[in-house]
Each structure stands twice: as C-alpha cells, then as structure tokens.
Specification:
alpha/beta, single chain, 37% helix, globular, 8-stranded parallel barrel
Length: 244
C-alpha cells in the first residue's frame, strides 16, 4: 500500500479515482489511480432501488444520459447498463474494495442517508476499517458511523450550500462547529483554505483536506502551505510534484 515517505507531505487522494486519466468512479479509474501512486482513492456511495451499494457521484450523470430517475429509483441492473466511458459500468462498493485492498487506502463518501450501517458491515467483512476514512456532508451520518464503528476516521465536508466563503469569521465558525463534534478531518474547497484557516485548524488538531486541485501552481501552493491531503483530478501530476 502506498504511504508517504515524508510525513510532512500531503496525502495524494485520487478524485473519483483518476478523474483526468480514466472515467470517474469506475474500476478502470481506481486501478489507474493505484498504478499512478495515489495514497487514497476517493469515491461516492449511493444505494440502488434493490439495495446494492453503488459507486456513482450524483443524478447529474443520469441527467446527461437523459434519465430522469434518481439513483435510488433504479435497480443495480439498470444502473450497470449505463456506459460511463471506455466501456466502464457503475461498480459496486465491494468491487472497489476488492480491487484496492492491500494496495491503496479509501476515502469513502456517503452520499445517501441511511446507508452507513451497510457500508460499515462491508468494510468490516473486508477487513479495511483501518484503511478507510468516511467523509460526508451529512453530520448525522458521520455521527451514526461513529456510533456503529468508533474506529473509523471521519471527515466532514463543509460548507454544504456555499462553495467559497471569503469572510474569515464564517470560515472560523465552520471549524469550530466541527470541533464540537470532534471530527478529526475537515474537507473543503481549496479557495476556503489559506494560512490562517490551516493554522487555526492545526492548532486544534484538525487535519485539512482540500479539493479539487488541478493545476501545478495550485498543487505546489497547498503542498508548501502544509495541508494534510490534496484531492486531485490528476494523480500523475500530483505524484510528479510531490515525489520528484
């Protein structure tokens, strides 16, 4: 499994696999991210109508294919008929775990409410609790994860409704709200992270993951700033910059 040689280097987290190098949230994309040297692969978990835990980002993907159903209104068989590019189909969570187990860590985003227990059961059965971080926009789901499996590391994605918050007081409030829940990781868009944000978080033992970083210049800025993880579309670019 890939681990940073230098603990001061940020984790390289492949956004939906290797977003720029292969179709997103597919087995091919996750395999590519592993081959390129990602520390973690990030992916999105929903539940199909018939109860399968599936890896797909959101309904926008369905809309682009002129499908008006939501993910939970479609069966696994229906979802797997979708062509995600290069012949790739919607994978199930167990397939992604099987592919990456022993090779990479998992940043698993719970995108649908009420599926935490099923996700945790699978992670337990596969023996990857110690290699997984659960992230979500839903605080109640993270609290449920903690109740069921206290050993899982948790990451809260903020803010929910705004992509960029210029005012420091509002960003500071986000950090303090997470401290009340004692979540160890805050995940936010890179525009919300500056030296002040990072130092305030680190002084309170809160790790900072930032997304989605695409350009070399932006990667270098956040690497030098000292963020704990960068969620990137190009794993190859991040590896080249960090491990040159």
């Amino acid at each position: 499994m890939n681990e940073n040689e230098n603990e001061n280097e940020p984790l390289i987290i492949g956004h939906r696999g290797a977003y720029d190098e292969a179709p997103e949230n597919t087995l091919k994309g996750f395999k590519k991210a592993i081959e390129l040297g990602a520390d973690y692969i990030e992916f999105d978990v929903h539940q199909s109508q018939d109860g399968a835990l599936v890896i797909i980002h959101d309904v926008d993907i369905l809309r682009r294919m002129r499908i008006n159903n939501t993910i939970d209104q479609m069966t696994l068989k229906e979802l797997q008929k979708l062509d995600l590019g290069e012949g790739e189909r919607v994978p199930e969570l167990w397939e992604v775990i099987k592919l990456g187990k022993g090779k990479v860590n998992f940043l698993c985003e719970i995108k649908a409410k009420g599926i935490s227990e099923k996700v945790i059961t699978l992670l337990r059965n596969e023996g990857v609790i110690d290699n997984t971080i659960i992230q979500s926009f839903f605080v109640e789901e993270l609290l449920e994860v903690r109740r069921i499996e206290p050993e899982l590391e948790l990451a809260a994605i903020v803010p929910i409704n705004e992509e960029y918050i210029p005012e420091w007081d509002k960003r500071k409030r986000l950090i303090e709200e997470l401290l009340n829940f004692e979540f160890p990781i805050i995940v936010t868009r890179y525009k919300n992270v500056d030296e002040q944000f990072l130092q305030y978080s680190h002084k309170r033992n809160l790790k900072v993951f930032t997304y989605t970083i695409n350009t070399r210049k932006t990667m270098e800025r956040f690497i030098n700033m000292g963020v704990d993880g960068i969620i990137v579309n190009s794993v190859s670019k991040a590896v080249k910059i960090i491990r040159k």
